[in-house]
Input
Amino acid sequence: MVFLDEAAITARSGDGGKGCVSFRRERFVPKGGPDGGNGGDGGSIIIRATKKLYTLRDFSRRRYFKAGNGGTGKGKNQSGRNSPHCIIETPVGTIIQDDETGEVLADLIEDKQEIVLISGGKGGKGNQHFATSTNRAPRMAQPGLPGQEKRLKLTLKLLADIGLVGLPNAGKSTILSRLTMARPKIDNYPFTTIVPNLGVISFDDEKTLVMADIPGLIEGASSGRGLGDRFLRHIERTNLLLHILDITCKPGPDILEDFLMLRHEMGKFAPELIDKPFFVAINKMDLYGPEHRDIEELRKAIEERGAESFLISALTGEGLEELKEKILQRWEEGREAFFSGKN
Output
């Protein structure tokens, strides 16, 4: 499936129907009073979140949405038909903005949550409403109010409990596939993951947590380098962050510098990311050798910066059960702190 997290669409609500000019014409009432009905209301544009969708891909094929117009009023005081609304479905986590002003019109974070974005035009009044003591046979009726058109920007921010962050080729996708049923593309070269992936971690007590793996981040990500700014927004809603470090990153930068760079880029993009609970998984321990950074020295340096670390091998499964238990523990601690007002 192609993953798209941004889209631009145009939506227009329906016009209100015209009111009717009509007079009663019955067998014994050849010159009856006005009986023109009102026009029907135009359809509104409604946007609704659904957990059945995971991407904005559908909007690459359809970019224009229009609700129907209200029906014209009829004689015998019959109102025109109200038009059905135009309902646009988007994934849960979609933010809708006015593309011209930037105003946030909706932030849909729950399944089936919906909002009326553009109201349909009201139907015009029929001539029965314009009869007076001096004008008992009015030959006027209101036109319906026109619908409105807006250009909308849709941005998807994934809703997940845990976010995986790290440099390209750190092993995030392998970890996601080992802890969940997700099957992201995995290969031994940087930038294998080019779109965010979601997976569900299941625990023994039937509890489940959603984990998001975003593409690898590089220096300058907060400014858009490597499309990092687009990827970072997908961890803004997470409750817990798991940093993945590659112990075999030689001859690249020092592994601790990688960790500090990631924290720096996250803070530049959104300061609140730095305040989220997090810990570190040092991956690829199956390949660890004397030529690599001293592991205890590295763990101490990470601990001095406020993070707990775990040694794992996503390939062999070493340390993953302990990591899974820690994920649940830290997530529950964060939730309790939130509801007690400590977070």
Remarks:
- The longest strand covers residues 149-156.
- The two ends are 37 Å apart (CA to CA).
- The chain has six helices and 14 strands.
- Residues 320-339 form the longest helix (20 residues).
